[in-house]
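TICKET: design request
STATUS: open
ATTACHED STRUCTURE:
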């Protein structure tokens, strides 16, 4: 077979492999419970039941996290009655974290977990990473990388999760940015 034919077949092999991504281990399972206490407050994931939770692991020193934050804040403002954003920062420097929240007008439920214990429970080692947890505490989707939380498809998935409609395939999604 000539080499030019092999190059034509390569995209077919790549496309065939794309749908073989395994479902992340936490999707369609109960979200691991944890609580985080920083100098400002203590927040327990179980206390957020009854609404969809967007569990977001992030850091102030992470450019993709900073890029994502405005859309996360905007989505929270638009869907406040249906969705709670629980943003867990892995920043070690408390002063830099607190100043970032003020400078960027972050209006979200956020706590700092410098030990990264909560992120490690979810297998998160790169940031940002987010989990959609339905009102009964089941992980429905995992996002890796920054997400535009104001996109209609994302907001529709969140609304369906609140309504208990999870007919859309549960999966891991990567950033469309």
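STATUS: resolved
RESOLUTION: sequence designed for all positions
ATTACHED SEQUENCE:
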């Amino acid at each position: 077979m000539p080499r030019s034919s092999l190059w034509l077949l390569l995209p077919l092999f790549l496309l065939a492999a794309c749908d073989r991504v395994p479902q992340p281990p936490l999707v369609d399972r109960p979200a691991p419970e944890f609580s985080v206490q920083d100098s400002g407050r203590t927040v327990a994931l179980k206390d957020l039941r009854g609404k969809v939770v967007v569990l977001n692991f992030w850091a102030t020193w992470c450019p993709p996290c900073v890029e994502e934050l405005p859309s996360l804040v905007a989505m929270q403002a638009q869907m406040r009655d249906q969705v709670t954003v629980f943003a867990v920062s892995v920043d070690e420097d408390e002063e830099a974290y607190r100043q970032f929240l003020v400078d960027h007008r972050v209006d979200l439920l956020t706590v700092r977990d410098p030990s990264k214990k909560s992120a490690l429970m979810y297998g998160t080692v790169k940031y940002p990473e987010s989990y959609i947890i339905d009102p009964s505490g089941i992980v429905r989707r995992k996002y890796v990388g920054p997400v535009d939380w104001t996109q209609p498809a994302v907001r529709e998935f969140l609304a369906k999760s609140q309504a208990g409609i999870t007919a859309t395939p549960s999966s891991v999604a990567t950033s469309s940015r």
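CLOSING REMARK: The chain has five helices and eight strands. Residues 21 and 125 are 19 Å apart (CA to CA).
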